[in-house]
Amino acid sequence: MRRTIYLLLGLVFGTGILSSCSDYLESDQYFKDRMTIEKVFASKPYSEEWLAHVYSDMTGQCADVANKRNTPHCFADDMYYGGDDADFGVTGSGATFSYNIFHTGSYSENAKQATWTQAYRGIRNATTFIQNIHMNTELTETEIADYRAQARFARAYYYWILLRKYGPIPLLPEEGIDYNDSYDDIATPRSSYEKCADYISSEMLLAAKDLKLTRDPYSEVARPTKGAALAARAKALLFAASPLMNGNTDDYAMALVDDEGNQLLSTTYDEEKWAKAAAAARDVMELGVYELFTVNYKTSGNIAYPATIDPPYDPEFSDKDWPNGWKNIDCFESYRSLFNGTATGDNPELIFTRGDNGDEQVAGMVANQLPIIADGWSNNGVTQKQVDAYYMNDGTDSPGKDREIGRGDGSNRLTGFVTQADVDAGMYKPLPTGVSLQYANREPRFYASVAYSGSIWHMQNATLPQDREKQVFYYRGGGNGYTNTLAWLRTGIGMKKFVHPGDTNEGGVPGGGPLVVRKLEPAIRYADILLMYAEALNELDGTYQIPSWDGSTTYTISRDVNEMKKGIRPVRIRAGVPDYTEDVYGDKDLFRATLKRERQIELMGEGKRYYDLRRWKDAPAEESLPIYGCNVLMDEANRELFHTPVNSWGLQSTFSDKMWFWPISHSELKRNKRLTQNPGWTSND
């Protein structure tokens, strides 16, 4: 073991801290006490510490849901961030990195590159664990199998993190690399996207065999289960089936090659990839472990937890209890509580999470969403496009939807504002007085996610009672609108997803202070799997026989509308909106467009939209559109003009081919002579 310890190119070619190969690779120098590998893995406590260390690199830029400083990929054309409005070099993982730099591809090849180093370091640590945990005599065989499976999951998940960000990446040999070999001898080329996805799939299958079906929802909340492995596998296979990676003959795909000229994206379309992705999603569904999170119907309440607001009557869903209808659930609270820290580790929808993933992650997002009046930074908001994506409460489109970007139906946006007489009459719930009628009668997910001007910020944890229950308008001159600082909403539309009614950021802590309720990161949740299942089925013309993950049965996979409804209906019912019409289900193109909209709404702010737009090949159209929002220069005396959408001058947008995948850093290209750059980016600094 001293002669050949498993080494990953991410460390040899990634850390930039090696004085020499031999100095770094002696195994007795790796562990903090300079123990030998044999001694480490003979000890149960040290083995468990090593496994915990395997997970440690899944934070920061390797997180799925995080604040802008770590994961700007949570922000696309739906949600934006402000605050970092200047470029001060963008060379380190924590350097200033504005939304405009991010959204226009103006970053350098060396920006946000901690993902590469962290992921390959995690892969190396996981592989060392996999290869040596068998030596432990203080663990039972069952514990050894579970621990090894956890490390295998982590290794495959690190590869998945790399694959979705950088595209095809090097897969390292299982047998390890001799540290006596030169850099040139151990240089490794990029594998094709298909090969990477298949490897992740096969590794997740191996992990699933020995992972527990369930875990303690509190002490083991951040450890993977059988379902987590199968869900991650489904995601990798769905991406591999998607247009960017499946039958792509565009110039970009032709230019993305390894060092020998082999194309790394499949140019031959294979419909069966969609069937395999559908079957993988169904594997998760068939476990019988997961369901969407719901909150019971409330007949009374208060301003922070109001009585349930009934959706408009629907003959199919209003009179039926969950899961066949919404009669006995609170659709607003079900969605809000899923993200704001109310739902805990026993949440049946949560498939994989890193737990409470640190101050600069979900809590940091919330600190940037809270308004100035709550000592927040008032930087994270949503775009007019996202506001328009939400349905009315009867499932129809909002008046004036997408009018400014040329996609509207010719209707005009509503004018006028909620009056006290409206409130007294019980109209337009939950809107208070003074709110634009453009925000009236929307679906529950809208009210759980969007901080429209005039919404109530509850801040129930505020020290002083007078600091609680505040109506916040974003008009210029009002204290929470446009200012000459960096802390203001560029579209005049804020974000409430992830915000708990108790949240306040007293003291102005950037990463979220002690009065911000801690949240579990929703890395993979069941709603995503359901939507993935429906999406994959929709793309099929043929019928396929696909074995289940464990070979216990064989699925017949086809474009079966009844099966597609299994993916759509629960998500829609929980949201309090009717199911799609039969016309939508019957038209593959219309269903695809509607499904994309459903993902945009349901998964907003969860790090999915940025990657969805790319795998669908929709990014050139969607990310090049101008970003619209309220006219933030208008004061309250001109409130109708404030609510007349304009091109947000503080936010820029464009898309170029180089933005399909993230660039590989120059330092990695120098260290690995067989590593090729993504098209459009430079290979030399």
TrEMBL record:
PROSITE patterns linked: PROKAR_LIPOPROTEIN
Localisation: Cell outer membrane
All copies of domain RagB/SusD, residue ranges: 349-681
Highest taxon in the source lineage: Bacteria
Xref: InterPro entries: SusD-like_N, SusD_RagB_dom, TPR-like_helical_dom_sf
Domain (SusD-like N-terminal) ranges: 109-236
Keyword DNA repair attributed: no
Pfam families, A to Z: SusD-like_3, SusD_RagB
Keywords: Cell outer membrane, Membrane, Signal
GO cellular component, one term: cell outer membrane
Membership in a protein family: Belongs to the SusD family.
Name the record gives this protein: RagB/SusD family nutrient uptake outer membrane protein
